[in-house]
Amino acid sequence: MVTRILRLPTVKARTGLSRSTIYMRISDGRFPKPVSLGKRAVGWVEVEINDWLNQQIESSRKAGH
């Protein structure tokens, strides 16, 4: 399996969250932490973002019942 790293614009597009909301949730422990790609670059592991999205869908569907 290939590990893909997603940059912030892609993470924002996939989740529908703003930059500030993403970083606020990271600090609260409610969003996957980014990995360092260099001095001033970070990215997110695609599988972790997909898992987070699936958890959000599951909890949303359970709350609706």
Automatic annotation (TrEMBL):
Pfam families: Phage_AlpA. InterPro entries: AlpA, Prophage_regulatory_activator. It comes from the Bacteria. This is AlpA family transcriptional regulator. It comes from Candidatus Thiodiazotropha endoloripes.
